[in-house]
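[recover] target loaded
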């Protein structure tokens, strides 16, 4: 009994204890399960909410910014292009060419008249709009003809006389047509001629107030480089129906504060408008663009309906003249809340909540400063546009709301049913409970892991809980929630891709503008800014072995002055083409004026010299410019990296120094940069100073070089060459100081001394029975000096030498100065009996037709050709000069003969006279006398 009782009490106890333990365990387990489902749910919801909000903000923020950038770039891009057009126009208008334009009969590239032949209009049309016959293509021609504005104005104003220039640029960026018309004082006259145009917006361009403001602004700012541009508010173009902005840049009278005319262009912003209209935010959201006065000019019809505004055609005011204004003010909305939105948009905050018809919307907005505008009331002011995104609130948070709702029901279900289960579990078998418990925990564990996954943005969730119980349902809800988030993110990333593409498009547009800034329009070559950029970039890359050659055309100024700028510009183009056509792997730049830059990828000196020589000779070939043949020489400066500098950006400075140096000491040649070039520049100033002393202290002396009959080797005469024995610097070569003496006009006095002294020397020779001639070099500075002829005749008379024995050597380039004046002087000299010889022939610019009218007796072939006579090109030049002299019946002397082969070649080809080291270096008069005696 006792035993049994004991047994049974233990069994009861055990059963009781076991049951108690099980019940407690179940209750504890239940509580744990309950709280873990709860927290699980709460946590998940929180994560999702944060995630959705963060992403939306970031996404819409980026989106808005990228559209903003696009718009700004577009607007700015057009302005930059217009500035370039303005510069081109100014260049043309200020040019000599334009002054000479016969304004009554303007016909330009398009062969285009205004309405009738009698109305003068110059039309510039960009090349791609012309067909093969240089006629404007059909399509743009139609546009030109429909430019109502010009048709209105020009017929009447052509009667009122022309003072101003109006350039009109129609059809937007892609279809540019420029019209240039003489423009009377439109600002004052227009309203008297066309009173009905008084309130047409386009007339703002010529508003007297605007012109006054411009002139005032210019007066204040002077020559400072400021942008005077103004842009009108968007209007609808009456011809094309597109929304356009009118950009205007004033053109001032040269160096004055008076507005001469304007360059104006209508630019379609259809691209911007449609970009805004295309924006789709969720299934019902949209974007719009508004001016600061509340005028909404870009908005899709769908959005207009939601905001209670009219669509484009309802909002357009038609003008008789064909121009339409789009007026769709946000204050005209049929909803009060939208009317109020206007003042909200102007405020600082970025996000606005808006309620229309019980529906809540979130408005993201961004103000952007777009351009400078002008009205007669406000004067100049910065115009702002406001870009807004309108998104239904429930769409913005839809993912979140939906998830929350579902999760809550699922959780409540789970909790209720969980309690029922717990009650059943207590009654049900322990093993079943334990087994069941195991199952529940495994499902829950999976849910915990899934929550972690979502936190880590992994939405690829497969819980694999197959049971159809609450845990199973909760798992299913989780899965579909994750799936939905995944889809949403996919959509967002697709839209992000569109953004990336947009940004790419924008970059390309920026590059195009970059290109225009770094580009020389006339030659189609990158300019100095581009070179500097290139060098800076290269220095960053740490490239090795680059050489910059700066090429300057010698005496280009004289070509411009002598033949006019048109010829000069044409010549530059020809030179540039020649450089483009030769291929030494160079990169070519057009620097300022007559200078080119050439970057060669080499630092090997012999290779460089070879290339430079070839280019030099190529450039010396004659150029046909219009109906002339011109020849030039060039001076080049060379600097190499890393030979001259370890900073590649220095190359430009160095090569330029070397080029100036070349011009000074070795015109027509090339020099490699060296450090002492800078020192030399200083020496030059010192030398100018010591020239005075040289004259006073008679530091000059004369030497003579025989001129020989190449066949008989008999002497014909001698050429006088000056020497300067500087007390401290020793012998200074004439090439070094003659140019300085010319510059400072000291050559006049020096030349006189040369003449007196050499005639004295010659007299001595004559008296000793040596009847030879004398050649004296005369600088053009001497030649054009007023008293030159009188002084010369005086000196010759006193010397008692017959003028027929005296030859004056004048360089070819002298004739460029003032052709007719020089010709007259030479005629008088010839009458007097002196003969004239053209020195350094072949290096200058003489044209045949011009030469044959001059009173010239001989040509002297430049020594450069003779010294390098083994170069084939030089042989051809020499042959040509010989042929030329024979045809024109000029005598001929070759200088620089150093070898017997050179003498033979010249003789064989018909040149009879020569001088050079082969016969004798220039020597003093005593030595000459001794040589003559032998
Ligand atoms: P230029 O009138 O062309 O004179 C010829 C130059 O060639 C001279 O140089 C002469 O020494 C040099 N020469 C002669 N034969 C040869 C040769 O076979 N090989 C080489 N390599 N050179 C040869 P120079 O004396 O140094 O004079 C240089 C220039 O200075 C002259 O060129 C001339 O333009 C100018 N010049 C010299 N004397 C006077 C002067 O009294 N008045 C003026 N206005 N200019 C002068
Ligand atoms: Ca000479
Ligand atoms: Ca010469």
């Amino acid at each position: 009994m006792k035993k049994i009782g004991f047994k049974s009490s233990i069994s009861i106890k055990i059963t009781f204890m076991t049951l108690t333990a099980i019940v407690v365990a179940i209750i504890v387990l239940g509580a744990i399960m309950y709280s873990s489902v709860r927290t699980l749910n709460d946590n998940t919801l929180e994560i999702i909410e944060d995630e959705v909000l963060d992403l939306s903000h970031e996404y819409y923020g980026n989106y808005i910014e990228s559209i903003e950038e696009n718009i700004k770039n577009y607007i700015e891009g057009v302005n930059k292009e217009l500035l370039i057009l303005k510069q081109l126009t100014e260049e043309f208008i200020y040019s000599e060419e334009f002054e000479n334009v016969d304004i009554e009969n303007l016909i330009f590239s398009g062969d285009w008249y205004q309405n009738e032949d009698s109305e003068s209009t110059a039309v510039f049309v960009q090349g791609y709009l012309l067909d093969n016959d240089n006629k404007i293509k059909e399509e743009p021609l139609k546009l030109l003809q429909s430019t109502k504005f010009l048709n209105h104005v020009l017929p009447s104003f052509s009667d009122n006389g022309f003072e101003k220039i109006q350039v009109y640029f129609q059809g937007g960026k892609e279809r540019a047509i420029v019209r240039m018309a003489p423009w009377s004082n439109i600002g004052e006259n227009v309203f008297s001629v066309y009173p009905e145009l008084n309130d047409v917006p386009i007339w703002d361009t010529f508003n007297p107030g605007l012109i006054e403001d411009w002139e005032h602004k210019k007066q204040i700012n002077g020559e400072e480089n400021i942008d005077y541009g103004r842009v009108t508010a968007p209007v609808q173009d009456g011809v094309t129906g597109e929304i356009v902005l009118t950009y205007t840049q004033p053109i001032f009278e040269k160096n004055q504060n008076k507005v001469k005319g304007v360059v104006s262009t209508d630019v379609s912003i259809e691209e911007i408008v449609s970009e805004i209209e295309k924006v789709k935010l969720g299934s019902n959201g949209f974007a719009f663009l508004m001016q600061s006065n509340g005028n909404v000019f870009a908005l899709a019809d769908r959005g207009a309906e939601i905001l209670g505004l009219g669509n484009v055609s309802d909002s357009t005011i038609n003008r008789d003249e064909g121009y339409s204004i789009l007026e769709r003010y946000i204050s005209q909305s049929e909803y009060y809340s939208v009317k109020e939105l206007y003042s909200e948009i102007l405020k600082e905050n970025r996000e606005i909540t808006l309620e229309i018809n019980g529906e809540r919307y979130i408005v993201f907005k961004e103000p952007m400063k777009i351009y400078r505008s002008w009205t007669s009331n406000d004067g100049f002011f910065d115009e702002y546009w406001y870009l807004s995104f309108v998104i239904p609130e429930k769409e913005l948070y839809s993912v979140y709301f939906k998830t929350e709702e579902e999760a809550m029901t699922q959780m409540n279900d789970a909790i209720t049913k969980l309690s029922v289960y717990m009650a059943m579990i207590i009654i049900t078998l322990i093993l079943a409970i334990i087994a069941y418990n195991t199952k529940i925990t495994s499902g829950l564990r999976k849910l915990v892991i899934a929550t972690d996954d979502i936190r880590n943005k992994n939405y690829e969730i497969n819980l694999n809980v197959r049971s159809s119980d609450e845990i199973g349902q909760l798992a299913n809800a989780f899965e579909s929630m994750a799936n939905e988030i995944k889809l949403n993110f996919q959509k967002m990333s697709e839209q992000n891709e569109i953004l990336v593409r947009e940004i790419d498009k924008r970059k390309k547009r920026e590059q195009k503008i970059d290109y225009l800034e770094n580009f020389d329009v006339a030659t189609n070559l990158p300019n100095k800014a581009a070179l500097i950029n290139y060098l800076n970039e290269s220095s960053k890359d740490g490239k090795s072995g680059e050489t910059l050659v700066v090429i300057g055309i010698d005496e280009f100024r004289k070509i411009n002055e002598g033949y006019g700028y048109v010829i000069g510009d044409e010549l530059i183009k020809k030179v540039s083409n020649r450089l483009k056509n030769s291929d030494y792997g160079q990169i070519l730049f057009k620097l300022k004026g007559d200078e080119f830059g050439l970057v060669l990828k080499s630092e090997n000196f012999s290779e460089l010299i070879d290339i430079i020589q070839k280019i030099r000779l190529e450039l010396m070939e004659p150029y046909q410019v219009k109906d002339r043949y011109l020849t030039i020489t060039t001076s080049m400066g060379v600097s190499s990296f890393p030979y001259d500098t370890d900073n590649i950006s220095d190359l430009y400075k160095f090569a330029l120094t070397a080029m100036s140096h070349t011009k000074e000491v070795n015109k027509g040649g090339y020099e490699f940069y060296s450090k002492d070039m800078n020192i030399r520049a200083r020496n030059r100033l010192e030398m100018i100073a010591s020239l005075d002393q040289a004259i006073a202290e008679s530091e000059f002396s004369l030497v003579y070089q025989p001129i020989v009959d190449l066949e008989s080797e008999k002497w014909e005469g001698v050429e006088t060459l000056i020497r300067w024995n500087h007390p401290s610097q020793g012998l200074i070569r004439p090439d070094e100081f003659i140019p300085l003496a010319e510059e400072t006009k000291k050559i006049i006095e020096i030349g006189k001394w040369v003449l007196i002294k050499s005639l004295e020397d010659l007299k001595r020779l004559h008296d000793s029975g040596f009847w030879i001639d004398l050649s004296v070099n005369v600088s053009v500075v001497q030649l054009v000096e007023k008293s030159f002829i009188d002084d010369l005749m005086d000196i010759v008379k006193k010397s008692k030498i017959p003028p027929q024995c005296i030859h004056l050597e004048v360089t070819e380039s002298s004739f460029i100065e003032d052709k007719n004046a020089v010709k007259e002087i030479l005629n008088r000299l010839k009458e007097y009996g002196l003969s004239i010889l053209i020195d350094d022939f072949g290096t200058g610019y003489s044209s045949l037709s011009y030469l044959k009218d001059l009173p010239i007796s001989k040509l002297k072939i430049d020594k450069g050709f003779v010294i390098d006579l083994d170069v084939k090109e030089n042989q051809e030049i020499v042959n040509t000069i010989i042929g030329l002299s024979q045809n024109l019946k000029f005598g001929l002397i070759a200088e620089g003969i150093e070898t017997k082969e050179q003498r033979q070649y010249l003789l064989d080809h018909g040149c009879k006279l020569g001088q050079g080291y082969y016969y004798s270096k220039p020597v003093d008069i005593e030595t000459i006398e001794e040589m003559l005696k032998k």
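[recover] notes: The chain is about 50% helix and 20% strand.
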